[in-house]
Amino acid sequence: MSPFSPLLTPFSPPKARPKALLWGAWLVLVAWPPVPDGRDAFYPSHPATVAHSTAIFFTLDQTALPDVVRAWLDVRALAVVTVESADDLMARALRGRPRLVIFDARGAMQHDVLAACARMKRDSYTGIIPAVALCGAADPQLAEAFDAGADEAVREGVPPAEATLRLNVLLRRSDRDTFVHPSTRLPGTDEIEAEITRRLPSSDAFAVCYADLDHFKEFNDRYSYYDGDRVIRILAKILHDVVKGFCGEGGFVGHIGGDDFIFIVPALAVAETCGEVISIFDGLVPYQYSEQDRRAGYFFGKDRRGQLHRVPLMTVSIGVVTNERRQFTHASQMSELATEMKSYAKTLAGSVYTVDRRQDAVAEHPLVVRRSGPANVGGGA
User: Fold this and answer.
1) Residue 102: which domain range?
2) Are residues 171 and 319 in the same domain?
3) How high is the mean pLDDT in each 10-residue block of the chain (381 residues)?
4) CA–CA dist 308, 302 (Å, integer)
5) CATH code, domain carrying 312
């Protein structure tokens, strides 16, 4: 018998569910177009900063960087590597992704320079590297730069303040696009860690909630990656709508990868948000199965050893950790505890969320488990 069994409470559905949230989750079944799934690992101990420290200057005319661009690179401590061959450019970009590439299209070789830009942008790996084109003041040259795939262009004669602003915005756009998860467009691991780090110095009590699907792999194996990707997008939509519906700008939802999500809410909103997520998910997930599997409530699948076993319908497990009774100095500490609580939740049957109630000094009540519903977590004041 689990030492935490006395802390289990029965399922209690939420009393007042915002209908807009439920309808929003239903709409995703038919309105959200399929997007290829992207999976990556979550390493919470890594700082939420960009690791690239090199800028490539691609020129075929042996010209120098404009002073304003050189000064901008110096301020950002970006070492400049000059490259004069398209093959060398691709080799460097593939070997170690630079922070950006500056293409000098001001000279007589501008067409060859822009061809190298187009080549870099065609590759799926190097295509996300920010590309800025240095071009003449004429409009046709500007159009050619953008047609070649340049993300930004700096014309000759542009005021230094405008050039600096354009370069800053270029990197900001790039970071925004890179740090979101490709399948759900939710913030990825870097943004998750940055959000936790931003909240840590505040005196406001908040909760980091780690949501993970149960029996998702078996579902993928029985149906297809396409159906599995749809389920991931449904969960993402539910999390976003519920968290934003209850918490507004005080809530945050991020996508670690695969079927793993992090959402952050005020500590007082844990019960209602987690309960609503569980209730809506449990109401929608049966309709992702065939009628036969849905009516039975399970299907037979093979485990890793090839043995047939009964696989129940998917459920969602949520591990919750708050800063109410603990002091945290780094985002990784909260992430590790949320992972621990999620792992414990996955050992329980059905959709459930578990809340860490341990203190730094004394652990009277190690954790509290709730199935769903807006009841007070912890069983009392």
Assistant:
1) 54-178
2) no
3) 35 41 41 32 33 84 92 94 95 89 93 96 88 92 94 94 95 82 84 94 94 94 92 95 92 94 96 96 95 93 81 96 92 94 94 90 53 42 30
4) 4
5) 3.30.70.270
